[in-house]
Amino acid sequence: MFYTMGISSSALTAQRLRLDVISSNMANVDTTREKLVDGQWQPYRRKMVVMQPNENSFSSALNNAMGSYAGNKTPAGVKVARIVEDQTPFKSIYDPEHPDADENGYVYQSNVDPLREMVDMISATRSYEANVTVFNATKAMLMKSLDIGK
User: pLDDT under 70 in the chain at which residues?
Assistant: First the structure.
């Protein structure tokens, strides 16, 4: 049962970070000048969370399932491998009066799509809620097992 709680808690941590990254993307949807690259300012680039399993072998999963979880340094679950930038091209609009317009009058905008971010946010929220449910169910089972011993 502690194994299940470890899996759920790792997923809760990963989904929380995913929600933080989505929030950052939404906050910067209209940012036209974020950082200097090759001598030019670039708009905000959408960030994405890349997750991977905490385990990397079948034998460690088998050992965990057989009850040697306490000695395992990397419990099962998920972890954030890295945060990457979306390489989708920036959107451009013609606005020669804008202070961030290039020499041709085009302003490059962030590659953040609010609709995609909302879908990702709903997905992350539902995953978070599902893992809270699993964690609470496991906790309830542990409490019931303690009641049996009374």
Answer: 1-2, 56-75
85 is written with which tokens?
A: 């930038």
The one-letter code for the residue type at 50 is: V
Which pLDDT score is estimated for 75? 63
Q: Are 117 and 96 in contact (CB under 8 A)?
A: no
- The pTM for the full model equals 0.80
pLDDT value for 22 = 97
Task: Note every long-range contact of 26-35, with CB atoms under 8 Å and residues 24 or more positions apart, other chains counting.
Answer: 26/112, 26/114, 26/117, 26/121, 28/110, 28/112, 29/110, 29/112, 29/114, 29/117, 30/109, 30/110, 31/110, 32/98, 32/100, 32/107, 32/108, 32/109, 32/110, 33/100
